[in-house]
Specification:
about 600 residues; single chain; about 0% helix; 6-stranded antiparallel sheet
Length: about 600
Amino acid sequence: MTEPQEVCDEGSAKNGYYGHCKSDCSGLGERCGDGTVQVEDCVCTQEKIDEGLCSTVGDYLSRCVPVNEVCDDGTDNGTWGKCNETCTAVLTCGDGIVTSPEVCDDGSFNGYYNHCKSDCTGIGPKCGDNIIQNEACGSIPGCVTMTGAHEDCDAGTLNGTDDGHCTAVCTDPGCIESCVPSVTSEGWLPAMASESPDYCDGLDNDHDGVIDEGCDCAPGATQACFSGAPNRRGVGLCQDGTQTCVYDSASKKGKWGDCVNEILPSEDVCDNADNLCTGCADYGLCCDAAIDCSYDIGYAIPFNDKIIKGTNFYKRSDYASATWTWTLTKGPCDELLGNTTFTVKGATSESGLSGSGTATTQVSGVGLSWFKVNFQLSGSYKLHVKVQRQNGEVHECDWVIRVKSDGLRVELCWDKTGHVDLDLHFAKVGTTTAWTGSNVCYYYTCDNLGNYFEYSLSGWGYSNTSNGHNPRLDIDNRSVVGVPENINIDNPNSGDRFRVGVNYYNNETYESDQWGNSSMDPITTHPLVNIYCGGTLKATYGKNPQVSGFDDEDEFWKVVEIQWVGGYDSDDCVLTPKFNTSSGAYIIGSVGTYDW
C-alpha cells in the first residue's frame, strides 16, 4: 500500500493513521486489545509534552517515546514504560515478571526507567532482595541512582553509588567492594609504516601477533615482553614473559623470538583477582570467592626451600578433602638437560614437607595443600595450582615465581651431561691473566662445595658473604646426568668487567674396539649459558643458534663480556657477546692464553 502502513486492520479502509490504532479497532490479527505487545504510537498531546513523552502537539506522526509497550489492554497505554491499572494481558503489571524497562514488578506505576518505588513488593529482582543487579532506588531518601556501575551488594536502601561501592548499611556478609575499571579500551596502537620498526618496547603495539618486529637486538639477549593489549601490561594478574633475540640467517641480524611464561588477560571468574587486567577484581560477579588468585606468593632464592601454604589463598573448609595439583613450567636449562633442575614436594601438613623433593614438574593428590620447591638455578617459573572439590567444582590460579639473588650469576648447561665434562670459567678484566690460572674462577680455584680446591681469590677484592666466597662455583658437574654448573658473585662494584668462557674438558665415554682396545670417540655437545643480573635474565647464549662443532678436548668457547652497572643490589649490566653476526657463529678457540 502507498499510504502509511497500518498497525492493525479490522477490515475497513484507512482505520489507522501511521502507527496508530483507533479505539474501535476490533479486526482479526495483531490488534489493540489482543494481549500481544507490539509497536504502537499515540497522538502527541500537551499532556504528553508535559510528561516529556513527545514534542509536537497535534502531529499524528509524532511517536510516544519509547514506542515499545510493556503490556497491551486495548487502550492508549503505550507511554514510557507505564502500564494502565486495567492491563489484564498475559504480561501484566504485578505478575512478578520483570519486563524491560521495569526493574521490579508489583502492579503499580513502578516501572520508570531503572527505578523501584519503596512499596515494590513483587516477586523477582527488586530493591532489597540481595540480588546484585543494575538498579536504582527512585524516591527513597538518600538513594543515589546507579550510572552504569554494578552494585556490590543489595540491602534495599542506600545500596549503590555511581562508583559501584556499598555503603555501611550493606549487610551481605560475603560481599566485596568492586570498582570502576581503569582500563576501558584494548589500547592497541595504529600499525606503523611497513618500512618502520615496531615501537621496540617488548609489546605487540599494533596487534599483528609479533612483538618488536624490525627492532635491532643482539643474538642471545633477552627482554621482558607482553603480547596482550599494551594497556593491560602489569595490571591485575597480567605479568610479563621473556623473549630471546635469535639469529636470523637471512638478514644476518638478530630478531626477537616468542614471548614465553607470560600471564595474559583471561575470562573473569570469582577468585578475588583481576583476571581481565582492567583494574577491577571480580567486577560485579560475586561475593565470598572460594579462591584468592590475587595472593602474593613472593619470590624464591636458589638452593633454598620455597614453601607455599595453600590455605592462604583457598578459602573453603574442605581443603583436606579436595584434590590439589601443583604444576611448574621448566626453566631455561631444563629442556636441554632433559630433566628439571628443581625438586618439588606436596604434603597435607607443613611437617610432611621435610626431606627431599622429586625432580619433576607436577605433584597431585588429595589434601596436598602444602607445596615445597627448591630451585638450583635462577629464572622465572610459571606455577599453576588446581583445586578440585569433591562435588566436581574446580578453582585454579596462575603465578610467576621469580627465583633471584643479589649480584651476578652465570649458569652453564649442556645436552650431553654424563658423557662430556664441560667447565665454566669466570674471569675479571684487569685481574685475570690466564683462563686456567690461579686468578680465574673455575672448578680448580673457587669450588664453594670443597670438592676439589677452595681458593678465596681474595685478589679480586670482594668480601665473602653468608652464601660463601665471592666469586664462587656453587655447582660443578663432571659426569652426572642432568646437572648444570653455576658461578656467582654477590657484591660486584659498578664498572667492574667480567668475562665468561666454557672449556670442553674431556669426553667421559670410552668404547672398546673388536680387539679390546679402549678409545675415546669425540662427542659433539651444545652448551647453553644464562646470564642473570640481580635475578633478571639478561641473555641466553648458545641455544639458538647452537655452538657448532664443540666436540674436542681443550676447545674453548668465548661467550660474553659483562660490565656491572650500579650497586650490588642492581639488576643492570651491559653485555658484549663474542658472536660473529656475518657467519652466525660463536667464537671457538683454544683454552690457552687469556685473550679476547
